[in-house]
Design a protein that fits this description.
Blueprint lengths: L24 H10 L3 H8 L3 H8 L9 H15 L18 H8 L6 H12 L8 H37 L13 H14 L18 E4 L7 E2 L2 E2 L1 E3 L6 E3 L13 E4 L1 H4 L18 E2 L11 E2 L6 E3 L2 H8 L15 E3 L5 E3 L6 H7 L5 H23 L5 H16 L6 H12 L7 H4 L4 H6 L4
Antiparallel strand pairs: 1-6, 2-3, 4-5, 7-9, 8-9, 10-11
Length: 449
Amino acid sequence: MIRVEFDVTKIPGSLLLTDADLKHASGLASALRDAADPFSLYLRGQLSRNTQESLAAYVSDEPLSAQFQQDLIADLNRQLQGPSLFEKKRFAGLQIQRDTLIKPLLEQEMKDLVRLNRLLLEEAYPAYIDKSLKAEWDSWQSLAEDATAKVIREWEDWKEQVLEKWQQTKVGNPPEFHPAWQPDIWKGIRAWLSEYVFHHKCAYCETGDAGHIPDAEHFRPKGQVRTKSGIVKTFHIDGATEITHPGYFWLAYRWENLLPSCNTCNRYSGKKDLFPVGKTHVGVRLITDPGELRHPKRKSTHINGIFYLEPDDLDQIEDRLLLHPYFDSPHEHVYFQLDGRAVPRPGSKQGQPSIDVFDLNQRDKVAQRSRIQSDDALNYVTKVSAAIPDKAAMKSVAERIAHEYFQGERPYAAAVFDTIRVFTGDDGLLSPDVLLKDTPYARVNLESD
């Protein structure tokens, strides 16, 4: 497990088209000129006279002149900002690959036409226009926000219509909250995070997804919550009625609570709905003084004083015992031995619970990790040694290798670099702590022990 840096304010891409977004400008020009499908025919008719004349005179495979490309982009951007590009007849015959994203967006009463139209344009011309990661991410977040509001309304209705009626008689066991989930949303966010943030590695064990069933793991369980002692009970907002913990349902669609996980970490003997804490699990809270919260962001609009707590406020109140790759530095809590086994660092209260709950020492995983960390550590030493005595070249090689692990698809970064330290020593000539001292990897992931 490694710390993963993800800043939502720095997601690349824009909503409007730029020159860089046209990965095959000549192909796009030919498609619009020929207008062989209803959407291209419609779009060509919306272009300016200058652009239409340039298209009519365009010879296939010829590079577009600077003026032609500038006019084409300007015209397409005007279309992105106009009415919805979608009409069923226009997209007849065109297969929308991101149907689970675009279909619900079309039902959102056109909240953001620029974003929606950008996605539609990408779907119509996937070979010619690059995907905007920002447009796709913002679209998933828009759906997630709507789904969160919906599940909160469901809980509040359940509280008034089911739970409070039961409280009047208390016949039988307390009722449990089972909302109507929208799994396509958290699966879509997981897929985005898996591809662009975690590089197809499990957020917990760093195993690549080959041979594993990828899960949209909810860090804090969305429904039932368990510890090794059993199903967690909590108190209703009245502070007196004990009920089964309803789960952190308001975090079910939050990206901070969604981590791509392999099946061995999330199923079988892995995490599932386990969530150990050092203090007491809490659910929906009645807060008399919002000043006690760091981020009193989500307050009920129907029930006075009710707050749906943010992850960092929950962390403070509950004292979570599981490591989170966005918020923690796992190397401070877990160390990997040469045999591939994870062990807690002395004094860490999160190390052993994380090893146990994520099943980091599952037999097959340990065997694979041990083999890879030994081979890859030797590969590091060999490649960096080849650059001796040029220290700048040695540093460059070490940084490139670190990038492959911590920002690329190579698995078991934490274990590999723990092994490299054993081979090189903490302050040896080849040590990553020496060669990477002034790089982000030293500050974030390879801090000396």
